[in-house]
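Q: Predict the assembly, please.
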Amino acid sequence: MNLLELLGYFNYWVFAIVLSVGLYTVIAKVNLVKKLIGLSIFQSAVFLMYITMDKVEGGTAPIIQKGVENQVFSNPLPQVLILTAIVVGVSTLALGLAIVVRISECYGTIEEDEILDAD
Amino acid sequence: MIIVFALFLLSLLVITALAIVRTENLFVAVMLTSIFSLLMAANFFILDAADVALTEAAVGAGITTVIFLSALALTAEREKISGAGWRIALLVVTVLAMLIIYATFDKPRLGDPEAPVHQHLAPWYLEKTPEYMDIPNVVTAVLGSFRGYDTLGEVFVVFAACIGVLFILGVKPGEGATIKAPHSAGLKHHLIPQVVGRLLIPFIVLFGLYVQFHGEYGPGGGFQAGALIATGVILYALLEGEDAALRAVPRGVLLALVIGGASLYGGVGLVCVWLGGNFLDYSVLAADPVAGQQLGILLIEAGVGMAVCGALLSIFHAFAARPTRL
Amino acid sequence: MSELVLDVLSWILLCLGGGFVLIGGIGTLRLPDFYTRLHAASLTDTMATILIFTGIMLQAGFSLAALKLAAIMLFLLLTGPTASYALANAALQSGMRPGAAHARARGEGEAG
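A: Predicted assembly structure:
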């Protein structure tokens, strides 16, 4: 397979590995802030997959310049989706961290098994 | 040649992700997450997504790190290594990764112009943008006008998150806990960062405004501009103390920015209905439909920028003003 | 002809800049103490920044892009050393003394 195909598959394999790393952090770690970090890694991996799909060979960023005809552009649609998704991800992360701060004040700890024991 | 660079960046991504999982000091994990966001932004730029790279760098590497650090200052610093059942989790996650890797062999080749995602809708947008709107940046055109509803929903999500954080962190901590007053002196005894910071903050805010108004001509737009201006004010709060920052940009102004931004966006849509078109159909805003579209996009980008800036600053102040436990 | 000269000059500057980044990276990993490692890391802030950006500016010619690159270089030159200073000051304020690891190793060498 030629080099561009290798890069294409490599993108998707990196997406799979980073997704699993993020998922493992959310499932297996007991610290609440670590879980939120894992969630943000998981989201970034999904963004990588979407943006990988938008590249067109020989294309450039989708900014139309006047007077240049027949330019090949990369797909603008996944970029629009991911722009929205990044900002929504940051908002939910801020909300999640606010809840973690309140939990830490009420229970004195942010380890999940200690919180479950205290309940 | 750029392919080797892209391969190198992707490998760095995987290494950073593994390092984040393995470390047990939470501050180290947050710093590594910031590096991860920066690497991701570089990757996005190589894949021709300039707007997304700018947003990921401004929001991911900048604001997320600040929010994480302020939350960590209020909670613990190290994590406890425990948790039974990590072997099962590792097994499940490995099986999932194998399944996804097996599935990726069916995906279209990277950069294939005949892939299904590049048919039907994307060429239509690329063709019709000069005709309907005549602005160079197609991503801003699609975000602001063709898919304006989604962006309106996103502004409302940011607004709701801001209100949620203000509700949750507006409750005073219970009695009986020893509390220390928040450290509001800032970095007054660190002279060099203060001098350099005071030099740079006007330029950061100016750059934020540049990005806001050039969103139609190049990568940029409301989200990036809001994050950049919020970063400038957060730098001021870190250097001079949070009270000085609250005197410079009071809480009332921040709430007015958030509410004003969201209302501006919805208001533009309602004005369009009043003038006879559909909701968020900007062609009726001016005599010439193309000029109307441009005016509409300018207004809603301003609304988005105001809302994002106000929301991020309110969230930062909510975290920073929280008294810490001893 | 002058294009060839510009290209060769850019190559030299970029390779030198890359070499300084490599030296800074090796130094950050191999040096013993925190302060010595900070010295190595700050090499990337100044020397490598100037070399790499000058190399790219030569390629950009005399245009708006060169002006933007000069502005970015100025920004990095201002903030990089400030960040190194802030790190060193924070370490000093929290009690880490320079030469502690070296003194410890020397003390153990004499006692052992």
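Residues 2-111 of chain C form one domain. The mean pLDDT of chain C is 85.
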